[in-house]
Amino acid sequence: MPEQEIDVALTVNGTPRTARVPARRLLSDCLRHDLGYTGTHVGCEHGVCGACTVLVDGQPMRSCLLFAVSVDGAKVTTVEGCRAPDGGLGPVQQAFQDCHGLQCGFCTPGFVTTITAYLRENPAPTEAQAREAIGGNLCRCTGYQNIVASVLRAAELLDRVDQA
Amino acid sequence: MKPPAFMYHRPASVDDALGLLAELGSDAKVLAGGQSLVPVLNMRLAAPVHLVDVNGLAELAYVRCDADAVRVGALARHVTVERDEPAYAALPLLRQATGHVAHPAIRNRGTTVGSLAHADPAAELPAVLTLVGGSVTVATSAGSRTVPAAEFFVGPLESALRPGELAVEATFPVPPPGTGSAWLEVSRRRGDYAVCGVGMLVTVDDDGRIVRARAAYVSVGPTPVLVELTDAVAGRPWDSADWAGAGALASAAVEPDDDVHATAAYRRHLVGVLTARAGREAARAGAGN
Asked: Which residues on B lie below 8 Å from A64 (Cβ)?
């Protein structure tokens, strides 16, 4: 029996996209393989590592724990959508560069999306809150100190953008 | 890994969903938030022939409060329950416990009722439902039934749900006035499954004396474990009750197992320590302090 395929429409980083995918296609694989957004990284594929985190209708979710068909019609933001309007580094990405918040970079897309959503709701976190905010994302290189610093730096940068 | 192939169904109404579930029977699994089901599929621990996706059933995405209970519909996400102010005012335990469910990215998608249906003895919500003496309303195309928590959790990852049934609502009764609550757990890393967790309800009378105390535990048995602690602390002022004694009572009452995460002895130790801490915290809240 041929595998069931279903049409899916998503708005990815503001651009309407469609794909015809098997029902079992994970959103992470749909983004990467069907639509070419390879910024979304796939780590553990069972919801533990946080590398595949994207924003679904503005909320961070594990794209490896969602079927693309199940979020048909959603607005998805990947790390590619976290850049500045001029195409340069967005504030969270800039903060990671400023604070040396990445080494190998594999986990970074999940951190950037998670932190982007977090700072929208919590624009001035304490260090403890910044640490809590990234509790669902694993990084095997940095030891997290510079990522915590990056959250605080991103909050500063966003504050400046808001004041400008 | 990637999940096995399945036939996908997305009903547009509860009636459609119940019709599909009746027709497909034991070949079908319900997909709500999927934050437990999809890992199981990705690891190929299950291979249902059909998935019935209930994410289109917006009419089940509610949290309703009245004087008696907090009622949570099948599609209410953890984050919705956690942030619901009337639910917090009526039953603070819901927010206290839900804040320990994995991480925000999981709570944004996972559902409270789905967590109940998954019946993981290491999960928070089954213990909360057990502690407050709640129930799950289960519907079929032929009608509905209400299953009390004590009968709903049958074994590890096994609930009383039968093929063709959909858990449509959980009812969390509001405890009597003067009742304080607490939720504490120990896990290896923030957001991991608890090595041991405890939910506590302590009722204090107008004179500041304890009337009732009971606790429910996660990760120390095949289902949530309810322990009545009233005998250890009843009649005592809320701020000088023997919570260490209550901890010892609870510690003797549970029968945890060894596994790769912790020995039974360590889990038993945690039951005692966490019971004492949670008891003091819930008693203080019950006394209005």
From this structure: 38, 42
Are residues A68 and A57 located together in one domain of the fold? yes
User: pTM above the 0.80 mark?
Assistant: yes
pLDDT in tens, B163-220: 999 999 999 999 999 999 999 999 998 889 999 999 999 999 999 999 999 999 999 9
Same-domain check for residues A73 and A9:
yes
* A and B: number of Cβ contacts within 8 A: 89
Total structural domains in chain A?
Answer: 2
Same domain, A67 and A111: no
A34 and A64 in a single domain? The answer is yes
Residue owning tokens 């509860």? B14
Q: How do the pLDDT tens digits run along chain A, 164 residues long?
A: 679 999 999 999 999 999 999 999 999 999 999 999 999 999 999 999 999 999 999 999 999 999 999 999 999 999 999 999 999 999 999 999 999 999 999 999 999 999 999 999 999 999 999 999 999 999 999 999 999 999 999 999 999 877 87
Q: Are A30 and A67 within one domain?
A: yes
Q: Give the largest Cα separation in chain B, rounded.
A: 62
Alpha-carbon span B242 to B234, nearest angstrom: 10
- Distance between CA B122 and CA B192 in Å, rounded? 10
* Of the candidates A10, A161, A36, A137, the residue with the CA atom closest to the CA atom of residue A88: A161
The full set of domains in chain B, from first to last, is: 7-53 (3.30.43.10), 59-173 (3.30.465.10), 179-286 (3.30.390.50)
ipTM for the complex shown = 0.96
- Based on the fold, state whether residues A44 and A89 are members of the same structural domain: no
B241 in Cβ contact with B204 (< 8 Å): no
- The residues in B 8-37 lying below 8 A from A, measured between CB atoms, are 8, 10, 31, 34-35
Q: Do B42 and A22 touch (CB under 8 A)?
A: no
Residue A122 is part of a domain; what is its CATH number?
Answer: 1.10.150.120
Helix (H/G/I), strand (E/B), else coil: A85 = coil
Q: Are residues A61 and A88 in the same domain?
A: no
Q: B45: Cβ–Cβ under 8 A, 6 or more apart, which residues?
A: none
> Could you give the 3-state DSSP secondary structure of residue A154?
helix
**In Å, what is the CA distance from B114 to each residue of B19, B23, B35?**
20, 21, 9
In which domain, by residue range, is A128 found? Answer: 83-163
